[in-house]
């Protein structure tokens, strides 16, 4: 049942908005993955957060994954989760702000 403001009784409007936002992001990532990824491609995910979309990348049969995030704790959690899953492709993780650092120069200079 709808309240005066159009929200369903018992459900906060912010939670529904956030859920809709996450569904939209997931839809966009799925569409972009299916359209642009090809087998053995290198994927660079900016602001990968704490949980990368491993299922999407597994289905696309990527060759290499690069995860970038501004938060060191997020990168640590992603790296640990990634290493525990034994992926068939290689991966690199970087803590940096892609808005302030030239990513290509950092990647080319890494050992």
TrEMBL record:
GO terms for cellular component: nucleus. Keywords: Methyltransferase, mRNA capping, mRNA processing, RNA-binding, S-adenosyl-L-methionine, Transferase. Its EC number is 2.1.1.56. Residues 16-111 form the MRNA cap 0 methyltransferase domain. It comes from the Eukaryota. One of its GO terms (molecular function) is RNA binding. InterPro entries: mRNA_G-N7_MeTrfase_dom, RG7MT1, SAM-dependent_MTases_sf. PROSITE patterns: RNA_CAP0_MT. Transmembrane segments: none annotated. It catalyses: a 5'-end (5'-triphosphoguanosine)-ribonucleoside in mRNA + S-adenosyl-L-methionine = a 5'-end (N(7)-methyl 5'-triphosphoguanosine)-ribonucleoside in mRNA + S-adenosyl-L-homocysteine. Pfam families: mRNA_G-N7_MeTrfase. Gene3D superfamilies: Vaccinia Virus protein VP39. This is mRNA (guanine-N(7))-methyltransferase. It comes from Opuntia streptacantha. The lineage of its organism: Eukaryota, Viridiplantae, Streptophyta, Embryophyta, Tracheophyta.
């Amino acid at each position: 049942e709808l309240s005066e403001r159009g929200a369903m009784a018992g459900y906060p409007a912010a939670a529904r908005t956030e859920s809709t936002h996450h569904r939209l992001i997931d839809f966009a990532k799925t569409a972009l993955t299916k359209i642009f990824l090809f087998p053995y491609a290198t994927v660079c995910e900016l602001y990968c957060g704490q949980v990368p979309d491993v299922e999407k990348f597994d289905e696309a049969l990527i060759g290499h994954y690069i995860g970038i995030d501004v938060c060191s704790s997020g990168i640590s959690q992603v790296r640990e989760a990634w290493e525990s899953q034994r992926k068939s492709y290689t991966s690199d993780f970087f803590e940096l702000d892609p808005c302030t650092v030239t990513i290509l120069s950092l990647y080319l200079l890494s050992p």
